[in-house]
Specification:
- It is built from seven helices and 14 strands.
- With about 300 residues, the protein is of the alpha/beta class.
- Helix 2 packs across helix 7.
- The chain has two domains: about 60 residues, SH3 type barrels (Roll), CATH 2.30.30.40; about 170 residues, Zn-dependent exopeptidases (Aminopeptidase).
- Keywords: Cell wall biogenesis/degradation, Hydrolase, Membrane, Transmembrane, Transmembrane helix.
- One of its GO terms (cellular component) is outer membrane-bounded periplasmic space.
- GO terms for molecular function: N-acetylmuramoyl-L-alanine amidase activity.
- This is SH3 domain-containing protein.
């Protein structure tokens, strides 16, 4: 009888021990999942952010006492490199700089983020050159549409797409100001980008002339970049394909980096103008140009 009582107590205590052990495993698994969730929801380096205030100071160090080296405007985007005490480190005109994190918000991933994987171009610098500006309107199209205005809108979209891949993007102008050709060349040659992309729209005296084309100056990397971008554009754009052409534009001829100039349609052609002013078209060419640059650099 004593033996029976002993074994009953033994197995009963074993059962309690097993239940305690199982509860401990369950609790451990729960907290492990919470920890993993916290890691996956935390903002990652390489994420894209948008400025949500009218003007945001860019400083040389992560502090309000840091020297102001520039400003970002509302709607500007950037890729976060790292974070320190409420400050995000960014690339600003080719240099590392800092902005306060409480004045920005994460940008929703682009539809093509699966293809344009975050960080794919993080080791590369791209100069995007919005042509004309300020006192130089460029071509004047139907209804007084100015080439310089459409160029700037398109160029900012291209910069956003490139930023989403982690690239360091330098715009030769970010607003309606005049920048000389020599200054554009200087910006490129000083920063030594992996690619220089000059954005334009075309014009002609005859209404029926339309389409898009890509220019290069020298054979080798210039031509390779032009072919890569133009092939991507041809897959995305429904305007007439005018091909890849060689020309001696100054921003190409004196550029030390692979460089192209793209004419994205004719603002003197009624059909082209209706198309190129749409959000769909401008986002499409931004995607295609980013795709072409990505293939040129990585494949």
């Amino acid at each position: 009888m004593d033996n029976l009582k002993y074994w009953h107590q033994f197995f009963y205590s074993k059962e309690i021990t097993m239940k305690v052990f199982q509860n401990l495993i369950a609790m451990f698994s729960f907290f492990l999942l919470l920890h993993m969730f916290a890691i996956t929801t935390e903002a990652k380096n390489g994420d894209t952010y948008e400025v949500i205030v009218n003007s945001l100071h860019v400083r040389d160090s992560p502090s309000t006492t840091g020297e102001i080296i520039g400003t970002l405007q509302k709607g500007n985007t950037f890729t976060k490199l790292t974070e320190k005490s409420g400050w995000y480190q960014i690339n600003y005109n080719g240099e590392k700089a800092w902005v306060a994190s409480n004045y920005v918000q994460p940008v929703e991933p682009l539809q093509d983020d699966i293809f344009f994987s975050s960080g794919a171009l993080s080791d590369y610098t791209i100069v995007v050159d919005p042509g004309h500006g300020g006192k130089d309107p460029g071509a004047i199209g139907h209804n007084g549409v100015l080439e310089k205005d459409i160029i700037l809108t398109t160029s900012k979209k291209i910069a956003d797409y490139l930023n989403s891949t982690g690239a360091n993007v330098i715009l030769t102008r970010t607003n309606d100001k005049f920048v000389s050709l020599d200054k554009r060349i200087e910006i490129s040659n000083t920063n030594k980008p992996d690619a220089f992309i000059s954005i334009h729209y075309n014009s002609f005296s005859m209404e029926n002339v339309g389409g898009f084309n890509t220019y290069y100056y020298s054979y080798g990397s210039d031509l390779e970049l032009a072919n890569s971008i133009h092939t991507s554009l041809a897959e995305e754009v429904n305007l007439r394909n005018r091909g890849v052409l060689r020309d001696d534009y100054r921003v190409l001829r004196y550029n030390n980096s692979p460089a192209v100039l793209i004419e994205l349609g004719f603002i003197t052609n009624s059909n082209d103008l209706l198309v190129i002013q749409t959000e769909e078209y401008q986002s499409g060419v931004a995607k295609a140009i980013t795709n072409g640059i990505k293939k040129f650099l990585l494949e």
